[in-house]
Amino acid sequence: MSIKRNLITIKGIKDGLVFRLDERCDLEELLAELRDMLENSHQAILSGPLVSIDVRFGERDLSDEQKLQILDVLRSKRNLLVRSIEGSKSAELRENAVLRTPVTTMSGMVRSGQVLRHDGNLLFLGDVNPGGSIVCTGDIYILGALRGMAHAGSEGSEHAIVGASYLAPTQLRIAEVISRPPDNDEESSAHPHETQMEFAYLKDGQMQIDKMANIARLRRDLNVFKGV
């Protein structure tokens, strides 16, 4: 008598599901169970509106072709959106790389006509006045007011961000995407104490603005397998 193992476990998280794949079983056996889950046993939680999922395969070594085999099965369910597919090794390497990325701190004021250029990530303590500019190859974090221009990812990185305690720029630029946010000066002056730190980032080639409290979620979502 054979006992069927559970090769795939599904865990619910705040904004989706995590699929954890068995690390040691044969890949074809794993794919067969995944197909069965999608078509039969887990219809209740995998049907309906769009569901975001992260796939984790632990210590298993998977080639890009094998990852695509898994993705092809998941894509058979049109409502499943795969955000990431990675093993514990790749996750550890990614997290260590983020921790090793240096952030340089500078302070002062960037006045009209001045341009502050930096190679890497920058934490700027001070204000950027109208007509002033900060240009960085990495991220830009401003503990102060951004009323001038900021260009993050100046060498083409679309994953760079621009964050500021008060975000009211004349122009924002990330990589080659340029945007001028809607003019909200009247609203801000009417409620001067309701401002909060925000950041700009790119999503599908478009500039987006969000609260700085949500940056951790964005960083996780950006680390998606390139073939997805």
Order of helices and strands: EEHHEHEHEEEEEEEEEHEEH
What percent of residues are in strands? 35-45%
Number of helices: 6
Portion of residues in helices? 25-40%
Shape: elongated
The biggest beta sheet is recorded as:
6 strands, mixed
Ends distance? 39 Å
Q: How large is the radius of gyration?
A: 22 Å
For the residues shown, what is the average pLDDT? 79
Spatial strand sequence of the major β-sheet:
5-7-9-11-14-15
Query: Structural class, judged by helices and strands?
Result: alpha/beta
Description:
Interacts with MinD and FtsZ. It holds the Pfam family MinC_C. This protein is of the alpha/beta class and 228 residues long. It folds into 2 domains: 8-96, Transcription Regulator spoIIAA, CATH 3.30.750; 102-213, Pectate Lyase C-like (3 Solenoid), CATH 2.160.20. The protein has helices spanning 27-41, 43-46, 64-74, 88-100, 185-190, 215-222, and strands at residues 8-13, 16-21, 51-56, 80-86, 103-110, 115-118, 121-128, 133-136, 140-146, 149-152, 162-167, 171-174, 177-179, 198-203, 206-211. The strands form 3 sheets. It has a 6-stranded mixed β-sheet, with no helix packed on it. Helix 1 (27-41) runs parallel beside helix 3 (64-74). It is elongated and about 65 Å long. Residues 182-194 and 224-228 have low confidence and may be disordered.
Please write out the topology.
Elements (H helix, E strand, L loop, with lengths): L7 E6 L2 E6 L5 H15 L1 H4 L4 E6 L7 H11 L5 E7 L1 H13 L2 E8 L4 E4 L2 E8 L4 E4 L3 E7 L2 E4 L9 E6 L3 E4 L2 E3 L5 H6 L7 E6 L2 E6 L3 H8 L6
Parallel strand pairs: 2-3, 3-4, 5-7, 6-8, 7-9, 8-10, 9-11, 10-12
Antiparallel strand pairs: 1-2, 11-14, 12-13, 14-15
